[in-house]
């Protein structure tokens, strides 16, 4: 990806099945929401999701990382082209929150 805006557009397309999807820019990162619940972050062309009981079960291979120095640990997820898997993951995180 050439820049953050292109990566944002790419990820929004990957997450297109997520209901009530929205985002907010915050100092060069993008906070991702479903039904007004923050479930993830895009930072430096990486996709991070909140650590919850269900997210740990669904993506046990994901590494815990901080998207930036002021963040809490999140799960760094390699993006999948399977939009249904992404939708189910977001739904699970939102339920846990």
Tell me what you see in this structure.
This protein has 97 residues and is an alpha+beta fold. It is 32% helix and 31% strand. It is built from three helices and six strands. It has helices at 4-14, 53-58, 83-96, and strands at residues 21-26, 29-34, 37-43, 46-49, 63-65, 74-77. It has a six-stranded antiparallel β-sheet. Strand 1 and strand 2 (29-34) form a beta hairpin. The model has no long low-confidence stretch (mean pLDDT 92).
- Mean of residue pLDDT values: 92
Helix content: 25-40%
Shape annotation: globular
Work out the strand percent: 25-35%
> Helical element count?
3
Main beta sheet: strand number and arrangement? 6 strands, antiparallel
N- and C-termini, Cα separation? 31 Å
Strand runs, count: 6
Give the SSE string: HEEEEHEEH
Cα gyration radius (Å): 12 Å
Note poorly predicted spans: none
Strand arrangement within the widest β-sheet reads 1-2-3-4-6-5
Helix/sheet category: alpha+beta
Keywords summarizing the entry:
31% strand, 32% helix, six-stranded antiparallel sheet, 6 strands, alpha+beta, 97 residues, 3 helices
Brief summary of the model shown:
This protein is an alpha+beta fold and 97 residues long. It has three helices and six strands. A hairpin with a 2-residue loop joins strand 3 and strand 4.
List the helices and strands and how they pair.
Blueprint (H helix, E strand, L loop, with lengths): L3 H11 L6 E6 L2 E6 L2 E7 L2 E4 L3 H6 L4 E3 L8 E4 L5 H14 L1
Antiparallel strand pairs: 1-2, 2-3, 3-4, 4-6, 5-6
């Amino acid at each position: 990806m050439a820049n953050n805006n292109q990566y944002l557009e790419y990820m929004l397309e990957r997450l297109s099945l997520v209901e009530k999807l929205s985002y907010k820019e915050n100092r060069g990162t993008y906070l991702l929401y479903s039904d007004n619940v923050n479930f993830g972050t895009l930072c430096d062309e990486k996709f991070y999701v909140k650590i919850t009981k269900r997210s740990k079960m669904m993506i046990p291979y994901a590494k815990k990382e901080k998207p930036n120095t002021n963040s809490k640990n999140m799960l760094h997820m390699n993006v999948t082209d399977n939009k249904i898997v992404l939708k189910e993951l977001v739904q699970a995180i939102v339920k846990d929150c």
